[in-house]
Specification:
alpha/beta, eight-stranded mixed beta sheet, 5 helices, about 25% helix, globular
Length: about 210
């Protein structure tokens, strides 16, 4: 298994802000999940301010018949443990991103990667929409707020957000957004939507518990 840092990531160098009270700083954990080949590694790498940690292996003949590459035949590598990145959304708010492996045989890692997560992003590929069912079920069962981000692959048919929501049988109010996992601004928008939604959900649950 190879642990590598991507060379083409966005790296931000800035002087420390000594005027800001460090007590106001907040670090939140976000899980990036979804089916095999949905774009999880790409999204984490595109938005990360640091060189992302990747744990990838080259797809081999041994995986044939195990990994379903229909629709993603050009995919040459696969995450076997996790992806990790970090992005500072604005002064005082940093997100730590943990990308899950997509293949069924690595799902045992999800519990550890999701421990302490504020929320999750479930990446969806409309060519293989059924591949994200497991992620949707996983976060719904654990009551972890999540946003479904439809990764717009070239040549893939475009569907309206409500059609995707209906096809995935999402709980009412679960956001569905379109994104390009390769684009930093698009990925950042997804993360902001995720944090905002999670904040609303956690606040609502807190009010219910004291009401």
């Amino acid at each position: 298994m190879s642990f590598e840092y991507a060379e083409n990531a966005h790296t931000t160098h800035s002087a420390p802000n000594t005027d800001r009270d460090d007590d106001t700083a907040m670090a939140l954990k976000i899980v990036v999940a979804g089916g095999f080949g949905a774009g999880k590694t790409t999204l984490v790498g595109a938005v990360s301010d640091i060189r992302p940690l990747r744990t990838e292996e080259t797809l081999s003949e041994a995986g044939q018949g195990v990994d379903d590459t229909a629709g993603v035949a050009r995919k040459a590598t696969s995450t076997v443990a996790m992806d990790f990145g970090r992005i500072t959304v604005h002064a005082g708010l940093t997100l730590y991103l943990f990308g899950t492996p997509g293949q069924d045989r690595f799902w045992f890692l999800w519990d550890e990667l999701s421990e302490g997560a504020l929320a999750a992003v479930v990446l969806a590929d409309t060519r293989r929409l059924e591949d994200c069912f497991a992620a949707v079920d996983y976060f719904e069962r654990r009551r972890i707020p999540f946003v479904v981000a439809v990764n717009r692959f070239p040549g893939a048919r475009t569907y309206a957000a409500h059609d995707v929501s209906h096809a995935l049988d999402l709980d009412r109010g679960t956001p569905v957004v379109l994104c390009d996992a390769r684009d930093r601004d698009s990925g950042k928008d997804v993360l902001i939507r995720t944090v905002e939604y999670a904040g609303r959900m956690h606040t609502a649950r807190l009010l219910d518990s004291v009401g």
